[in-house]
Amino acid sequence: MGLPLEGLRVIDLTQDFAGPFCTMILSDLGAEVIKIEKPGTGDETRAWGPPFIDGISYYFLSLNRGKKSVVLDLKKNEAQKIIRKLSVDADIFVESSRPGQMARFNLDYPRLRRLNKALVYASISSFGQTGPYRDRLGYDLIAFAMSGIMASTGEEGRPPIRMSVPVADLAAGHYASTAILAALSRRLVTGRGDYIDLSLHDSIVSWLTYLASYYFATGKEPQRLGSAHPSIVPYQAFRCKDEDVVLAIGNDRQWTTFCHAAGLERLLADTRFSTNPSRVRNRRVLIPVLERMFRRREAKEWQRILAQATVPATPVFSIRDLVRDPHVRNRRMIVRSKEDPPRLGSPMRFHKRKPKKTTPAPQLGQHTREILAELGYSS
After folding, report:
1. ∠ CA 225-275-281, rounded to 5°
2. pLDDT tens, 319-349?
3. What sign results for the dihedral spanned by CA atoms 186, 187, 192, 195?
4. Does position 356 have pLDDT exceeding 70, yes or no?
């Protein structure tokens, strides 16, 4: 059986991270994704390197597997005409230009809807199509800094930190793909598409979740706790003799099991640590005790002891560790072939459906002639 979106066509006018991440999800679900790129340079992430692999940036490779690349200069009327022709039979249109740009190219939703009432059209931008910040330039880091989340990162008394992956972009890409799938589902009933206004800032603000609720409940800003959790203790990284281990105690039963496994039975009689709320209140007393304990053994030894007791804990994996991990290999999250460099797999699994045999990210303009020939253009 084919994947859920097999037979659907996506016109992809996105670049950088959030938009390409969204359309890569649609590609992994079986859709044909036609990526429109500008002449000469293409998506600007093609230049985000080194390293480059077979002339393609590692950054671009990570976001554009399984897509087709078509080069068109949208400033030219003929190129705009080609996009409109493609849109007549397309199912999804995704763009990530600044608000108003698509209207200047005559490729905005109202115009394309006249050609294809079933088209699902998504606009991904920094701050959305409305509001005081509508026209502001912004990347992931800007949205993250303005979300309230970055202010809670890092350790007490030290500056906030950037996440090592672009979480605002990732949030926006996921929300955009979810909204598109919802619109496709609704289209089955109405026969009509929809317009989706999706922003990086809205997306990452929605990720505040319990941090926002904490502020609403107390009027206080969350503390900077490094790897620790504001409402669960112990739930953080600890330094061992050699490396780090993460301990995640989610309930009082697990706390009891952990104390027995770690030889800390004396803590079970201490009412300051008997419940999670009491451990949260007394974290400044408890955490130094645990830090001294973990320092006495190596990380692998702690992992063996805690795993035998079914305590949620793990060493902190490097990417090298991840790539070699047997579970990751079993789940096919690293895709290898003789012809192409290794790449990440899709996490989506469907019963009795074979995963899509994806191709690597395309060379710039690799499919221009193929797609234009489909539209009736001569060589």
Report:
1. 40
2. 999 999 999 999 989 888 877 788 888 888 8
3. positive
4. no
CB of 330 within 8 A of CB of 324?
A: no
Helix, strand, coil content of the chain in percent (nearest 5) = 40, 15, 45
Task: Locate all alpha helices (DSSP H) within the chain, ordered by sequence.
Answer: 18-28, 58-61, 77-88, 101-104, 109-115, 140-145, 167-190, 200-206, 210-218, 252-262, 265-268, 276-281, 283-294, 299-308, 319-324, 326-330, 368-374
**pLDDT tens profile 64-105:** 999 999 999 999 999 999 999 999 999 999 999 999 999 999
Higher-confidence position of 3 and 279: 279
CA dist 54 and 341 (Å) reads: 9
Q: Give the residue among 204, 192, 194 at the shortest CA–CA distance from 142.
A: 204
Catalytic residue from among 43, 91, 140, 169 = 169
Could you tell me the strand order of the sheet in which 9-13 lies?
A: 68-71, 32-37, 9-13, 92-95, 120-125, 194-199
**Phi then psi dihedrals of residue 172, to 5 deg:** -65, -40
What single-letter amino acid sits at 304?
R
Kindly tell me if the per-residue pLDDT of 161 is higher than 80. Answer: yes
Task: Give me the residue label for tokens 């800032």.
Answer: 201
Token pair in block for residue 250: 């989610």
Q: What angle do CA 284, 285, 290 make, to 5 degrees?
A: 100
How many beta carbons lie within 10 A of that of residue 219, not counting itself? 7
Main-chain phi, psi angles of 315, to 5 degrees: -65, 160
- Asked if 244 contacts 299 with a C-beta cutoff of 8 angstroms, the reply is yes
Q: Rounded to whole angstroms, how far apart are CA atoms 256 and 270?
A: 12
pTM of the model: 0.91
Instruction: Specify whether 194 is catalytic.
Output: no
pLDDT of residue 304: 95
